[in-house]
Specification:
With 261 residues, the protein is of the alpha/beta class. Helices cover 51% and strands 17% of the residues. The chain has two domains: 199 residues, 2-enoyl-CoA Hydratase, Chain A, domain 1, CATH 3.90.226.10; 49 residues, Lyase 2-enoyl-coa Hydratase, Chain  A, domain 2, CATH 1.10.12. Strand 3, helix 1 and strand 4 form a beta-alpha-beta unit. It is an enzyme of class 4 (lyase).
């Protein structure tokens, strides 16, 4: 299945979204639209339980389409709207009801890294380059980068990377906690597939969604409200078929057969 500059394949209940906008997979307005349409599809398809986002060719996403920036010269409101458009899509990904895993196969720069940071988990090729070089353009990150990088690492490291515009490789990104794992490129998709299929084929979509809600809500609203949200979701799961099946299977010493209900 194809959308504008985006391809989608579904295998073993995992939806693989591949950004394909040569030569560098830049996030132009039409590519953002195609990405949004792909998420519309996987959101409404109950056969898809996990989403993987990656890039075609040698790039994950090399950033925004800089040529489009010239359309907003001397028009701060238009530029602000441009930022809001990217932020809205990435916020949607961060709050998505299904796990979204970024498979960073190559350069993830500017908007590309901001996209990866909006995903729930990140696996990166060891030699992939990651960074936020917007200050080289006299700008700042505009698709959530100033907020998510500090949250995923820490304030000092985020400011270092933003203010210097330095790139780091996948290994360093793993060391500072920006990605879950750094993996040789040849093995990247195999490792991502293992994790995605473990979740998609062995876990209940109901408890997976509840886990995402609890963790994300707590990060956004603070621990006290997050704990209350956790208790509510914990309680709601006691009315689900899958919770009863999971507990019953444990007591009966057999493998649970979840139906995502």
């Amino acid at each position: 299945m194809e959308f504008t500059n985006v391809k989608l394949e579904v295998e073993n209940r995992v939806g693989y979204i591949r950004i394909d906008a040569p030569p560098a997979n830049t996030l132009s307005s039409v590519t953002l639209s195609g990405l949004s349409e792909a998420f519309d599809y996987v959101e409404g398809n109950s056969d898809v339980k996990v989403v993987v986002v990656t890039g075609a060719g040698k790039f994950f996403v090399a950033g925004a389409d800089i040529k489009e920036f010239t359309n907003a010269f001397d028009n701060p409101k238009a530029a602000e709207q441009m930022a809001h458009t990217g932020q809205k899509l990435f916020d949607r990904i961060e709050n998505f009801s299904k796990p979204v895993i970024a498979a960073v196969n190559g350069a993830a720069l500017g908007g590309g890294l901001e996209l990866a940071m909006a995903c729930h988990m990140r696996y990166a090729a060891e030699d992939a380059k990651l960074g936020l070089p917007e200050l080289n353009l006299g700008l700042i990150p505009g698709f959530g980068g100033t907020q998510r990088l500090a949250r995923l690492t820490n304030q000092a490291k985020a400011l270092e990377l933003i203010l210097t515009s330095q790139f780091i490789d996948g290994k360093e990104a793993e060391r500072i906690g920006l990605v879950n794992h750094a993996i040789p490129l040849a093995s990247l998709m195999d490792e991502v597939k293992k994790t995605a299929e473990l979740i998609a084929l062995q876990k209940s979509a109901v408890s997976v969604s509840a886990s995402l809600k609890a963790v994300t809500y707590g990060l956004q609203e603070g621990q006290e409200k997050g704990m209350e949200k956790e208790a509510i979701l914990f309680g709601e799961l006691f009315a689900s078929d899958d919770m009863k099946e999971g507990v019953g299977a444990f007591i009966e010493k057999r493998k649970a057969q979840f139906t995502d209900k």
